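Chain A, query sequence.
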Amino acid sequence: MKLVIFAGPPTCGKTTVIRQVIKRIIVKNLKPSFVKIDVLYADEDEAINKEFGIPAKKIYSGELCPDHCNVVVLDEVVEWAEQKGSDYLFVETAGLCLRCSPYVEKSLGIVVLEATSGMNLPRKIGPMLTLADISVITKIDLISQAEREVFRYRVLEAAKSITIVESNALYGIGIDPIVKKILKTEDVEFPMFLRGNPPVGTCTICVGKKEIGAKNHFGVLRTMEKELFYIGE
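Chain A, predicted structure.
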């Protein structure tokens, strides 16, 4: 089975891209499944199951960062999809932590970016972009040609070897090159490993400390004037 992970900022068009991909995968008599990882609410799994009749489910990260949730449940998700007899597993993650990356080795990582989000967006989202294989730029019909060129340049500035696909996903424009890449993806294998390096240290805020100020925390810290430093054992 092949694993494809879609990430990107909220409202960038991830689900629309995935729906267009699923249409083309099904036509080839291949069996996809779909999992949505979100924080508090999602109904994309229900809509995709109703539209295509494929296995689909959602997982709420709740108190966890979505990328953290993705890491700790992905092995079970892959096993679930394999039990369903899937040829492809599409995972859509909210991916709200811009320091983390949801992608794993021996899979395809696709980041979806909304062209209308501003020319500096590619400079702001870190490993979500730099560790991806494909950058899908959506809503290209809503900006000028000059803006498209600048946005494309900024993507390549952040991730020099990435494949860029410009898409009007609502009408299925630019989807075929994505499908070609998906079909060439190698099979996922256990054990699975994250791409790149996770963030340094353990976050005391994530484990529940509410006090404000570096003096109240330990691990990897910083102050307004001082760059990263470490306090603790």
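The chain has two domains: 2-183, 200-233. Residues 200-233 form one domain.
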